[in-house]
Amino acid sequence: MKLCVSIEIQEGLSYAETLALAHAAEDAGFDAALLAEHYCASSGTGDRAAADAWVYLAGLARETERIRLGTLVSPVTFRHPSVLAKLAATLDHVSGGRAELGLGAGWLETEHEAYGFPFPSAVERVDLLEEQLEVITGLWTQEPFSHAGRAYRLRDCAFTPKPVQQPHPPLIVGGRPGSKRLPRLAARYAQEYVVTMPSLSECEQIAQRLRGACPLSVFTYMCIADSEEEFERRLAEMTSDLRPEMRRVDRWIIGTREAAFERFALLARSGVQRVFLAVWDESHRRMLELLAAGPTPSDRTN
Length: 302
Hints:
Number of helices: 10
Structural class: alpha/beta
Strand content: 15-25%
CATH class: Alpha Beta
Largest sheet: 8 strands, parallel, barrel
Protein backbone atom coordinates (compact mmCIF):
# COMPACT_ATOMS: atom_id res chain seq x y z
CA MET A 1 0.00 0.00 0.00
CA LYS A 2 1.25 3.49 -0.91
CA LEU A 3 1.07 6.57 1.31
CA CYS A 4 0.15 9.98 -0.12
CA VAL A 5 -0.78 13.41 1.20
CA SER A 6 -3.69 15.67 0.44
CA ILE A 7 -2.42 19.19 1.12
CA GLU A 8 -5.39 21.24 2.35
CA ILE A 9 -4.27 24.57 0.92
CA GLN A 10 -7.72 26.09 1.52
CA GLU A 11 -6.94 26.15 5.25
CA GLY A 12 -4.79 29.27 4.90
CA LEU A 13 -1.62 27.75 3.45
CA SER A 14 0.83 30.03 1.65
CA TYR A 15 2.76 28.67 -1.31
CA ALA A 16 5.91 28.41 0.84
CA GLU A 17 4.03 26.34 3.43
CA THR A 18 2.56 24.14 0.70
CA LEU A 19 5.98 23.58 -0.84
CA ALA A 20 7.41 22.68 2.56
CA LEU A 21 4.73 20.01 3.04
CA ALA A 22 5.28 18.68 -0.49
CA HIS A 23 9.02 18.47 0.13
CA ALA A 24 8.42 16.73 3.48
CA ALA A 25 6.20 14.16 1.76
CA GLU A 26 8.70 13.65 -1.05
CA ASP A 27 11.58 13.27 1.41
CA ALA A 28 9.50 10.75 3.38
CA GLY A 29 9.05 8.62 0.26
CA PHE A 30 5.34 9.32 -0.21
CA ASP A 31 3.86 8.51 -3.61
CA ALA A 32 1.81 11.65 -4.27
CA ALA A 33 1.07 15.14 -2.98
CA LEU A 34 -2.34 16.14 -4.28
CA LEU A 35 -3.96 19.47 -3.47
CA ALA A 36 -7.49 19.89 -2.20
CA GLU A 37 -9.43 22.28 -4.43
CA HIS A 38 -11.71 24.66 -2.60
CA TYR A 39 -12.35 28.37 -2.92
CA CYS A 40 -12.82 28.78 0.83
CA ALA A 41 -11.89 26.85 3.97
CA SER A 42 -13.67 23.51 4.07
CA SER A 43 -13.09 23.11 7.81
CA GLY A 44 -15.72 25.74 8.58
CA THR A 45 -13.19 28.38 9.60
CA GLY A 46 -14.24 31.28 7.41
CA ASP A 47 -11.31 33.67 7.74
CA ARG A 48 -8.61 31.48 6.19
CA ALA A 49 -7.10 32.30 2.80
CA ALA A 50 -7.77 29.77 0.04
CA ALA A 51 -5.37 29.94 -2.91
CA ASP A 52 -5.86 28.51 -6.39
CA ALA A 53 -4.72 24.88 -6.53
CA TRP A 54 -3.64 24.88 -10.18
CA VAL A 55 -1.33 27.87 -9.78
CA TYR A 56 0.29 26.19 -6.77
CA LEU A 57 0.62 22.93 -8.73
CA ALA A 58 2.54 24.67 -11.52
CA GLY A 59 5.02 25.92 -8.94
CA LEU A 60 5.30 22.54 -7.20
CA ALA A 61 5.95 20.84 -10.53
CA ARG A 62 9.16 22.86 -10.97
CA GLU A 63 10.29 22.55 -7.34
CA THR A 64 9.80 18.83 -6.76
CA GLU A 65 11.45 15.89 -8.49
CA ARG A 66 9.66 12.59 -7.97
CA ILE A 67 6.37 12.97 -6.15
CA ARG A 68 3.16 12.85 -8.18
CA LEU A 69 0.98 15.97 -8.29
CA GLY A 70 -2.67 16.82 -8.93
CA THR A 71 -5.99 17.63 -7.28
CA LEU A 72 -8.05 15.72 -4.74
CA VAL A 73 -10.52 16.56 -6.00
CA SER A 74 -11.64 19.20 -8.51
CA PRO A 75 -15.41 19.80 -8.25
CA VAL A 76 -17.12 19.49 -11.63
CA THR A 77 -19.19 22.55 -10.77
CA PHE A 78 -16.16 24.87 -10.96
CA ARG A 79 -15.29 24.75 -14.68
CA HIS A 80 -15.86 23.32 -18.15
CA PRO A 81 -14.23 19.90 -18.69
CA SER A 82 -12.21 21.23 -21.63
CA VAL A 83 -10.53 23.70 -19.28
CA LEU A 84 -9.82 21.00 -16.72
CA ALA A 85 -8.40 18.67 -19.38
CA LYS A 86 -6.12 21.47 -20.57
CA LEU A 87 -4.93 22.27 -17.04
CA ALA A 88 -4.10 18.65 -16.21
CA ALA A 89 -2.41 17.94 -19.55
CA THR A 90 -0.28 21.07 -19.19
CA LEU A 91 0.66 20.08 -15.64
CA ASP A 92 1.69 16.69 -17.01
CA HIS A 93 4.19 18.48 -19.27
CA VAL A 94 5.47 20.90 -16.65
CA SER A 95 5.97 18.06 -14.14
CA GLY A 96 7.57 15.63 -16.59
CA GLY A 97 4.69 13.15 -16.55
CA ARG A 98 3.70 13.23 -12.87
CA ALA A 99 0.15 14.62 -13.11
CA GLU A 100 -2.99 13.04 -11.69
CA LEU A 101 -6.51 14.45 -11.91
CA GLY A 102 -9.08 13.94 -9.20
CA LEU A 103 -12.73 14.70 -9.96
CA GLY A 104 -15.72 14.93 -7.65
CA ALA A 105 -19.32 16.08 -7.70
CA GLY A 106 -18.73 18.89 -5.19
CA TRP A 107 -20.28 19.06 -1.74
CA LEU A 108 -19.67 22.43 -0.03
CA GLU A 109 -22.84 24.35 -0.86
CA THR A 110 -21.86 27.54 1.00
CA GLU A 111 -18.72 27.76 -1.13
CA HIS A 112 -20.80 27.66 -4.29
CA GLU A 113 -23.18 30.29 -3.00
CA ALA A 114 -20.34 32.61 -1.99
CA TYR A 115 -18.56 32.43 -5.35
CA GLY A 116 -21.62 32.23 -7.58
CA PHE A 117 -21.21 28.66 -8.81
CA PRO A 118 -24.44 26.79 -9.56
CA PHE A 119 -25.11 23.98 -7.09
CA PRO A 120 -27.66 21.62 -8.67
CA SER A 121 -29.05 18.53 -7.00
CA ALA A 122 -26.80 15.63 -6.09
CA VAL A 123 -28.15 13.57 -8.99
CA GLU A 124 -27.48 16.39 -11.45
CA ARG A 125 -23.95 16.91 -10.11
CA VAL A 126 -23.17 13.23 -10.59
CA ASP A 127 -24.59 13.53 -14.13
CA LEU A 128 -22.11 16.35 -14.71
CA LEU A 129 -19.31 14.22 -13.31
CA GLU A 130 -20.11 11.36 -15.67
CA GLU A 131 -20.19 13.68 -18.68
CA GLN A 132 -16.96 15.41 -17.63
CA LEU A 133 -15.18 12.07 -17.32
CA GLU A 134 -16.36 11.18 -20.83
CA VAL A 135 -15.25 14.53 -22.27
CA ILE A 136 -11.85 14.64 -20.58
CA THR A 137 -11.02 11.06 -21.55
CA GLY A 138 -12.14 11.76 -25.12
CA LEU A 139 -10.07 14.94 -25.42
CA TRP A 140 -6.97 13.13 -24.19
CA THR A 141 -7.31 10.04 -26.38
CA GLN A 142 -9.28 10.88 -29.55
CA GLU A 143 -8.22 13.04 -32.50
CA PRO A 144 -10.34 14.99 -33.22
CA PHE A 145 -12.95 14.73 -30.48
CA SER A 146 -16.63 15.63 -30.73
CA HIS A 147 -19.29 15.34 -28.06
CA ALA A 148 -22.99 16.18 -27.90
CA GLY A 149 -24.26 15.74 -24.35
CA ARG A 150 -26.80 17.28 -22.02
CA ALA A 151 -24.36 19.80 -20.55
CA TYR A 152 -21.45 20.05 -22.99
CA ARG A 153 -21.03 20.17 -26.76
CA LEU A 154 -17.67 19.94 -28.54
CA ARG A 155 -17.06 19.78 -32.27
CA ASP A 156 -13.92 18.44 -33.97
CA CYS A 157 -11.64 19.47 -31.11
CA ALA A 158 -7.95 18.88 -31.92
CA PHE A 159 -6.82 18.96 -28.29
CA THR A 160 -3.27 20.02 -27.43
CA PRO A 161 -0.96 19.39 -25.74
CA LYS A 162 -1.54 15.68 -25.55
CA PRO A 163 -0.50 14.39 -22.12
CA VAL A 164 2.99 13.03 -21.55
CA GLN A 165 1.56 9.94 -19.84
CA GLN A 166 -0.12 7.58 -22.26
CA PRO A 167 -2.88 6.89 -22.80
CA HIS A 168 -3.47 9.71 -20.29
CA PRO A 169 -2.77 10.82 -16.70
CA PRO A 170 -4.54 8.81 -14.00
CA LEU A 171 -8.12 9.88 -13.33
CA ILE A 172 -9.36 9.64 -9.75
CA VAL A 173 -13.04 9.76 -8.78
CA GLY A 174 -13.82 10.91 -5.26
CA GLY A 175 -16.82 9.76 -3.26
CA ARG A 176 -18.23 8.93 0.16
CA PRO A 177 -18.76 5.51 1.75
CA GLY A 178 -22.46 5.44 0.92
CA SER A 179 -22.11 6.43 -2.74
CA LYS A 180 -23.76 3.95 -5.10
CA ARG A 181 -23.29 5.41 -8.56
CA LEU A 182 -19.80 6.86 -8.12
CA PRO A 183 -18.04 3.48 -7.81
CA ARG A 184 -19.63 2.46 -11.11
CA LEU A 185 -18.34 5.63 -12.78
CA ALA A 186 -14.89 5.06 -11.33
CA ALA A 187 -14.87 1.48 -12.59
CA ARG A 188 -15.84 2.65 -16.07
CA TYR A 189 -13.68 5.76 -16.52
CA ALA A 190 -11.09 6.13 -13.76
CA GLN A 191 -7.87 4.54 -12.61
CA GLU A 192 -8.71 4.99 -8.92
CA TYR A 193 -11.65 5.50 -6.58
CA VAL A 194 -10.97 7.42 -3.37
CA VAL A 195 -13.43 7.37 -0.47
CA THR A 196 -13.57 9.84 2.40
CA MET A 197 -13.15 8.36 5.89
CA PRO A 198 -14.68 4.90 5.43
CA SER A 199 -14.71 2.21 8.09
CA LEU A 200 -12.79 -1.02 7.49
CA SER A 201 -16.00 -2.91 6.70
CA GLU A 202 -17.04 -0.19 4.23
CA CYS A 203 -13.65 -0.51 2.51
CA GLU A 204 -14.23 -4.23 2.06
CA GLN A 205 -17.71 -3.64 0.65
CA ILE A 206 -16.55 -0.93 -1.77
CA ALA A 207 -13.59 -3.02 -2.95
CA GLN A 208 -16.00 -5.85 -3.71
CA ARG A 209 -18.27 -3.43 -5.56
CA LEU A 210 -15.36 -2.25 -7.72
CA ARG A 211 -14.52 -5.90 -8.52
CA GLY A 212 -10.96 -5.04 -9.48
CA ALA A 213 -12.00 -2.57 -12.18
CA CYS A 214 -9.92 0.14 -10.50
CA PRO A 215 -7.96 0.46 -7.24
CA LEU A 216 -9.56 1.71 -4.02
CA SER A 217 -8.00 4.53 -1.99
CA VAL A 218 -8.92 6.27 1.25
CA PHE A 219 -8.80 9.93 2.24
CA THR A 220 -8.56 10.53 5.97
CA TYR A 221 -7.00 12.64 8.68
CA MET A 222 -4.09 11.79 10.93
CA CYS A 223 -2.72 12.68 14.33
CA ILE A 224 0.51 10.84 15.11
CA ALA A 225 3.00 11.58 17.87
CA ASP A 226 5.98 10.08 19.68
CA SER A 227 3.99 9.55 22.86
CA GLU A 228 0.40 9.16 24.01
CA GLU A 229 0.60 12.44 25.93
CA GLU A 230 1.76 14.38 22.88
CA PHE A 231 -0.87 12.66 20.76
CA GLU A 232 -3.72 13.67 23.10
CA ARG A 233 -2.56 17.30 23.11
CA ARG A 234 -2.26 17.54 19.35
CA LEU A 235 -5.56 15.77 18.73
CA ALA A 236 -7.41 18.29 20.91
CA GLU A 237 -5.81 21.15 19.00
CA MET A 238 -6.54 19.71 15.58
CA THR A 239 -10.17 18.76 16.11
CA SER A 240 -11.18 22.10 17.64
CA ASP A 241 -11.41 23.79 14.21
CA LEU A 242 -12.99 20.98 12.20
CA ARG A 243 -16.57 20.39 11.16
CA PRO A 244 -18.33 17.75 13.30
CA GLU A 245 -18.38 15.20 10.47
CA MET A 246 -14.59 15.53 10.16
CA ARG A 247 -14.00 14.67 13.82
CA ARG A 248 -14.72 10.95 13.54
CA VAL A 249 -11.31 10.08 14.92
CA ASP A 250 -12.15 6.37 14.96
CA ARG A 251 -11.63 6.57 11.17
CA TRP A 252 -8.42 8.62 11.37
CA ILE A 253 -4.84 7.41 11.48
CA ILE A 254 -4.13 8.15 15.13
CA GLY A 255 -1.84 7.41 18.04
CA THR A 256 1.80 6.43 17.99
CA ARG A 257 3.80 5.46 14.93
CA GLU A 258 3.22 1.80 15.74
CA ALA A 259 -0.53 2.30 15.95
CA ALA A 260 -0.51 4.14 12.62
CA PHE A 261 1.15 1.26 10.79
CA GLU A 262 -1.21 -1.22 12.39
CA ARG A 263 -4.09 0.78 10.93
CA PHE A 264 -2.41 0.93 7.52
CA ALA A 265 -2.05 -2.86 7.57
CA LEU A 266 -5.76 -3.27 8.36
CA LEU A 267 -6.71 -0.91 5.53
CA ALA A 268 -4.49 -2.85 3.12
CA ARG A 269 -6.19 -6.10 4.10
CA SER A 270 -9.54 -4.40 3.48
CA GLY A 271 -8.62 -3.76 -0.16
CA VAL A 272 -7.10 -0.25 0.07
CA GLN A 273 -4.12 0.45 -2.20
CA ARG A 274 -3.35 4.11 -1.40
CA VAL A 275 -4.05 6.26 1.66
CA PHE A 276 -4.26 10.06 1.37
CA LEU A 277 -3.47 11.83 4.64
CA ALA A 278 -4.80 15.37 5.00
CA VAL A 279 -2.06 17.84 5.98
CA TRP A 280 -2.23 21.59 6.54
CA ASP A 281 -0.23 22.39 9.66
CA GLU A 282 3.42 22.64 10.69
CA SER A 283 2.86 19.72 13.10
CA HIS A 284 2.00 17.51 10.12
CA ARG A 285 5.59 17.78 8.87
CA ARG A 286 6.79 16.03 12.03
CA MET A 287 4.11 13.38 11.53
CA LEU A 288 5.37 12.76 7.99
CA GLU A 289 8.87 12.33 9.40
CA LEU A 290 7.56 9.71 11.82
CA LEU A 291 6.11 7.77 8.90
CA ALA A 292 9.13 8.22 6.65
CA ALA A 293 11.06 5.04 7.33
CA GLY A 294 8.10 2.72 6.81
CA PRO A 295 7.06 -0.03 9.20
CA THR A 296 9.57 -1.89 11.30
CA PRO A 297 8.99 -5.63 11.88
CA SER A 298 7.30 -4.83 15.21
CA ASP A 299 4.88 -2.43 13.47
CA ARG A 300 3.53 -5.06 11.08
CA THR A 301 0.45 -7.06 11.90
CA ASN A 302 0.36 -10.76 11.08
